[in-house]
Design goal:
Bound molecules: adenosine-5'-triphosphate
Strand content: 5-15%
Structural class: alpha/beta
Helix content: 40-55%
Number of strands: 14
Distance between the termini: 74 Å
Radius of gyration: 34 Å
Organism: Zea mays (Maize)
GO molecular function, one term: ABC-type transporter activity
Oligomer: single chain
Pfam families: ABC2_membrane_3, ABC_tran, ABCA12_C
Protein name: ABC transporter domain-containing protein
Family: Belongs to the ABC transporter superfamily. ABCA family. CPR flippase (TC 3.A.1.211) subfamily.
Length: 622
């Protein structure tokens, strides 16, 4: 395409031409000023991704399309206000760049450019995962682009000997479009070249000499292309946003996916610990799940069917089976506690159930919906309190709850009531805490807010990953009360390291070790099944440990040592055949000659059961 092209120089001289700020500071500065909003949008988008805020929003029901539309409108509105501010102040202060051209033309051209800038930032954001890197890159890009406009692009499009196609090609780079706009709106480059230039007017838009029409077309085409590319990368890119995509491959090719699952199942069977078949309670749970899969029962909100997660080994490391074929069912109105040592696979299980990672094989049904196919629908009915607080530092606690409440379709008075109730239930209401920015919250306050977020809007299934970690005793009690009253009409799946919490909150408990359930039942059942013992704790002077052990074995030959820590020893003694009075007498007599500082006899606790189950299965899996 060959364009006739006008340079500044040939413009006809005017009578007077006072030196203008836009001439003094140059076009470069105006390009910077307008592009300044680009790194801001970019870093904001990447921040939401890096902090997994988008993930948590999605888990609370904010669909992809809604997220993109809201974010787009938000950044477009801010960019528009910023441009209005620039043009208004520029005009008031007499800057000819803003004053000479028709405001309607300026509106159309700047509006098109800021749309392009927002869509370009959206596309760029898909390639970054670190906010700081994105921000630095964004600013360097802004500065570099303006300089390139001045020293690379300008000489080319001012060179009459070069074909116009070269500059058109360069205008495909969005900052050069902006440079060209500023160039065309600006008075001539030097007051020495006095011209009759009076800005760009409505009728000039179709004049090929100023290239405005071409730029508008380029910007419109690029805007649509960038948005489409963003959608494509976001939808089909590999888990960039921390959210597994339930891509249509699952829908359209279910047979193939189930075939793949079967293949993986066969390979994984080799890894399943052999103790699995010995655990009658776990086997019974597996049968219940099979029964529920055959005859559905709406009372069961969560059904995990042989769920497996294998992390593939990287950098020469072996693959890791985090969850090894877990079958589990949780009824509505029930709180199910998952206990397990570090690395047992609790978080991996929750991550699969919340769509954060993809199961290697097997699946789970949440209120009848398959996590492989219907995650977007599932998100509308679940609440999540992740292991790490995913909050906006700049918003208040109340604003967080208002936002998530709206996502859960609460409106008006009902929303206000729910938010206040929620804040009170986690002790974040009094003293104006609710209206403080989250940046000023302590770790415990953030945790309580995360729990409140997971419960707002009446979700039918709630996942809580170590909800009370880092809380002081009073806050923990308040949180437990909130969870207790919340579980009435919903299923709660909770992971914890606190036995006290598991006993206080959970109707059923599963102990998980090495990715598989070792036992399942309520705390009384577990203590009775795996307990059936007394626990004897003795603290004696240093060096007397062997003598104490001998004494205990004389009282109960079947006694087992649980641990020995600097003079304190714990023994497990089968109840059968043991006479408590004899133990009392023997320990009192031994107090003086064995230097026993303290001793105690108690029923086995859940913690004892946990230690026994965890260490037993560790041993069996070695
Ligand atoms: N992304 C990953 N890549 C590779 N291995 C992983 C990954 N995430 C977890 N693992 C491994 O999977 C196992 C289970 O981890 P997971 O975080 O699910 O355990 P957990 O029971 O939640 O532990 P904790 O109580 O410490 O939170 C661990 O051995 C862990 O190292």
């Amino acid at each position: 395409m060959q364009f006739e092209f006008i340079k500044d120089m040939p413009r006809v001289a005017q009578q007077e031409f006072p030196i203008d700020i836009s001439f003094l500071v140059g076009k470069l500065v105006f390009v910077w000023m307008i592009m300044l909003y680009f790194p801001v949008i970019l870093s904001n988008l990447v921040y939401e991704k890096e902090q997994k805020l988008r993930t948590i929003m999605k888990m609370h029901g904010l669909g992809d399309m809604a997220y993109w539309i809201i974010s787009y409108c938000y950044f477009l509105l801010l960019s528009l206000l910023y441009m209005l501010f620039l043009v208004s102040f520029g005009s008031i202060f007499g800057i000819k760049l803003f004053r000479l051209s028709d405001y309607r033309v300026q509106f159309v051209v700047y509006f098109a450019y800021i749309n392009l800038q927002v869509s370009f930032a959206f596309l760029m954001a898909t390639f970054f995962s670190n906010c700081r890197t994105a921000s630095v890159t964004g600013y360097l890009f802004t500065i570099g682009s303006a300089y390139s406009g001045e020293y690379l692009f300008r000489p080319i499009f001012e060179d009459m000997s070069l074909s116009r196609s070269w500059s058109t090609l360069m205008e495909l780079f969005p900052p050069f479009c902006l440079y060209r706009i500023i160039y065309e709106f600006s008075p001539p480059p030097s007051p020495l070249y006095r011209t009759d230039f009076s800005g760009v007017h409505w009728e000039d838009l179709s004049d090929h000499k100023n290239g405005m029409l071409d730029i508008l077309i380029i910007m419109a085409v690029e805007w649509a292309t960038f948005l489409l590319l963003t959608f494509f990368v976001d939808e089909f890119g590999t888990f960039r946003n921390g959210i597994r995509k339930t891509v249509s491959i699952f829908r359209s090719n279910t047979d193939q996916s189930s075939h793949t699952c079967q293949m993986q199942t066969i390979q994984l069977e080799e890894f399943l610990p052999s103790v699995e078949t010995d655990r009658t309670d776990v086997s019974r749970e597996r049968e219940t799940v099979q029964q529920l899969l055959r005859e559905s029962d709406s009372n069961f909100s969560v059904i995990c069917d042989n769920l497996k997660k294998v992390y593939h080994g990287k950098d020469g490391n072996a693959e890791k089976i985090a969850v090894a074929g877990l079958s589990l069912s949780v009824q509505r109105g029930q709180c199910f506690g998952i206990l397990g040592p570090n690395g047992a696979g609790k978080t991996s299980l929750i991550s699969m159930l919340t769509g954060f990672t993809k199961p290697t094989s097997g699946t789970a049904y949440i209120d009848g919906m398959d996590i492989r196919l219907d995650m977007n629908k599932i998100y509308t009915g679940i609440g999540v309190c992740p292991q790490f607080d995913l909050l906006w530092e700049t918003l208040t606690g109340r604003e967080h709850l208002m936002f998530y409440g709206r996502l859960k379709n609460l409106r008006g008075g009902a929303l206000d009531v729910a938010v206040e109730h929620s804040l009170r239930s986690v002790r974040l209401f009094d003293g104006g805490i609710a209206d403080k920015r989250v940046a000023k919250y302590s770790g415990g306050m953030k945790r309580r807010l995360s729990v409140a977020i997971s419960l707002i809007g009446d979700p039918k299934v709630v996942y809580m990953d170590e909800p009370s970690s880092g809380l002081d005793p009073a806050s923990r009690r308040a949180l437990w009360n909130a969870v207790m009253s919340a579980k009435e009409n919903r299923a709660i799946v909770l992971t914890t390291h606190s036995m006290e919490e598991a006993e206080a909150l959970c109707d059923r408990i599963g102990i998980m070790v090495n990715g598989s359930l070792q036992c399942i039942g309520n705390s009384k059942e577990l203590k009775a099944r795996y307990g059936g013992t007394y626990m004897l704790t003795v603290t004696a002077a240093a060096g007397e440990e062997a003598a104490v052990e001998q004494l205990v074995r004389s009282l109960c030959p079947a006694a087992n040592g649980v641990y020995r820590i600097s003079g304190t020893q714990k023994f497990e003694m089968p109840k059968q055949g043991l006479r408590i009075s004899e133990v009392f007498q023997a320990m009192e007599r031994a107090k003086s000659w064995l230097n026993i500082a303290a001793w105690g006899l108690s029923d086995a606790t859940l913690e004892d059961t946990f230690i026994k189950v965890a260490s037993g299965s560790d041993a069996s899996s070695v």
